[in-house]
Amino acid sequence: MHPLLYPPGSVVLLLGNEAIARGAIEAGLGFAAAYPGTPSTEIVESLAGVAEHYGFHVEWSVNEKVAFESAYAASLCGVRSLTAMKHVGLNVAADALMSSAYTGVEAGFLIVSAEDPDMWSSQNEQDNRYYGLHAYIPVFEAYSPWEAKELVKYAFNFSEKFKHPVIFRSTTRVSHSSGPVKFDAVPSVKSSGRFVKDPSRFTLVPAHARKLRVKLIEKWRSICEEVNYSPFNKYIDNGSRKLIICCGTGYGYLMDCLKILGVEGKVNVLKISTSVPAPRRLIMDALGRCDEALVVEELEPILERDVKVMAFEEGVKCRIHGKDFIPLIGELNIDKLIHGIAKFMDVPVPSNFLNPLKLSIEIPARPPTLCAGCPHRASFLELKWALAKSGVRDVVYAGDIGCYSLGVDEPFRVQDIMLEMGGGIGSANGLAHVSNQFVVAIMGDSTFYHACIPALINSVYNKSPMLIMVLDNRITAMTGHQPHPGSGFTATGAKTEEVKIEDIARGVGVRYVDTIDPFNVKDSIEKLMKAIKFVLENRAVALVNSRRACTLMVVSNARRKGVSVPRYAVDVDLCRACGICYNQLSCPAITPMPDKKASIDPLLCFGCSVCMQICPFNAIKPLETPSKDWEEVWRVD
Ligand code: SF4
Ligand code: SF4
């Protein structure tokens, strides 16, 4: 059974993201829209799995901005709505975010921002509480899956009470840890409503916006007062002259550290879940009873600065610490936190934290790599060979964010610039106009729909000579196979129109558009060479869509259908140890033997056949002839 379908009263082990989803369901969610991004993806993915059962609308939107706008507009119709995205996704939606504070909303509207301290799968570790301060939108944060579910419900009510958006901030440790969550009743779902026209509120022309700004500041004052009464903010008075103020994951780690250090009950603790705006009266009450305070928070010293300003403004004589004791960079954990807490509490750090156990074995480095049989690997190889055969040596690759980011490493080196999602064609545009180098922009299919189309139009309009290569594996692969407008089905699995990349390119005026199958090496190289020739001769844009479904998706489909995956093997008598298969294609299933001849691990081989096609000595062969069924499964597109 889907974990979100258990009846009220059940205690279910949920991932933090599932708990957020359950909280939204228990709050009467009627509409959810998101773009996938780690660590937020499972929120809307789990909602999609139960949308039909509960009767709300769920969609994967083309990007975070569209998701935000969709959920915002649904809220204006009186439908409780949620949008979810990874932290950098909020940058994409920031324009709408800033303005939504001016108009406010009608039904509860929750913006889930899942952040990634330590950058496990992101390009930065921005702290989106700044967005709350910047936009005058409250930011709430939980420390556990259980609290996340409850806080989401509170946030929906809060949003509806003030007719104002609320940001729910999660981080990797909350989103991706599991914990027991008790289910409450699900109210009847309101998934349709009506937009009541009010141009003075919902159309932000300057005359309206000026008045709305005044109202926003008034509303913010009420919100600042209300957070003092949040049941999720908790003060624990232990009669100490020391105080620790914490928020988000900091609370859970803090309680563990106090226990380990044997100082539980020897310090006052103020746990804050409404970190923006900080609950001033609660903080001042607690500060007034101590001589020294420490603020524990993950990433930026946002609460710390607030507390210092408040203490200064109110003339409270209390020494306040924060990032002088607690790390500014990366995720918090007990190992990192315990040193700062011990210093603040003036107690020694236990020896096992001073000298952590060191392994005496050396673990070999395992750099991230594209999967065996990944079509991107074949595309990269074909692109490089086509450029070389065309005599183009001086190339700059403007890359993008997705699985293909792994092309940054040897042997491909096809990501020279990688700034943000959708940034490839825009960067290529600048390069194309000022540099004599041949410019290639590389992006995935989901990224193409997400943010590349305006840049594509720009490159046509401004006559920017470049080769655009889309790596179309038919799905948003990096976040776990969520569909996109080119997949032909929706978040709930319903069939829908397929929006073709080639059609978009032709529609916006790209004169050279072609499609290749990266598993047909010879044909792909020939077509790429023609595209390169077009760019050189016409000083214009050429787009080549390299279309093959993600190997992992294909192999899992094959297994489900009972279709066997063909394996390939090296005939050692024919192999001349040239190294092309393991050095230039670098499939992880192929390794060099001590005599430099190649060997294929049959457990890793996914039967793409590319190594066979590139071996100049015909030394690689399938162990069995690939079946018709296998050809069919590979053709899933
Ligand atoms: S490409 Fe062929 S000949 Fe060269 S190492 Fe690989 S299997 Fe051997
Ligand atoms: S066929 Fe060759 S390139 Fe493809 S997965 Fe198997 S070993 Fe790797």
Q: Averaged pLDDT, please?
A: 95
Strand line-up of the largest beta sheet: 3-2-4-5-7-6
In total, the number of strands is 22
Strand content: 15-25%
Shape: globular
Please estimate the helix content.
25-40%
Low-confidence stretches: none
Tell me the Rg in angstroms.
28 Å
**Distance N to C terminus:** 29 Å
The total count of helices amounts to 24
List the bound ligands: iron/sulfur cluster
* Biggest sheet overview: 6 strands, parallel
Structural class: alpha/beta
List keywords for this structure.
16% strand; 637 residues; alpha/beta; 24 helices; six-stranded parallel β-sheet; binds iron/sulfur cluster; globular; five-stranded mixed β-sheet; 39% helix
Your description of this structure?
With 637 residues, this protein is an alpha/beta fold. Helix content is 39%, strand content 16%. It is built from 24 helices and 22 strands. The strands form 6 sheets. The protein has a 6-stranded parallel sheet with strand order 3-2-4-5-7-6, with helices on both faces. A 5-stranded mixed sheet has the order 9-11-10-12-13, sandwiched between helices. Helix 1 (16-26) runs parallel beside helix 7 (145-162), helix 3 packs parallel to helix 5 (94-103) and helix 16 (375-389) packs across helix 20 (521-538). The relative contact order is 0.08. The model has no long low-confidence stretch (mean pLDDT 95). One iron/sulfur cluster (SF4) binds at residues 372-373, 568, 585, 587, 589-590, 600, 605-611. One iron/sulfur cluster (SF4) binds next to helix 23.
